[in-house]
Please model this.
Amino acid sequence: MPGPVHTLSDGYSRTMTAHPETEGPPVVTGGDPGQSTILVFDPNGLAKHGELPATWRPLTERRRVVWCRVPADGALTEAAELLADGGLTPPVHVVCGAQAVHPVLRVLDDQPDAAASLLLVNPPPEARNTGEVITLEDLPLGHPEVVAAVERATA
Model:
């Protein structure tokens, strides 16, 4: 059921949802499927319009990027299926933001050999030994510093 309709200052009415980060596709991809994969688990639900964040698009020249929008319905299930059925070209480098660490660890527990690396962005203290911490700053995964850290870690 859609949320309430609000009339904004531009005079147009729009339907608002309580959680706009859940709107849009659960998974967004870019790049050549034959290239090695960076599987991103985004707890903030960026890429809701079906395109990778602009900062990640240059990576698609050398890698396939699969962006899992964790708040979207079915996102974790779809990512788990991609890992399980070999739908991702190895090596698969998994990137996840702070709030996604524990759900991602559960997904990876079911496929322990699927990921070549687990790159963590601002993980909670208890999860810092589960992968390679690429930054402790509280940055969105679309931030240029995160992209640069991922590039260094996957080079």
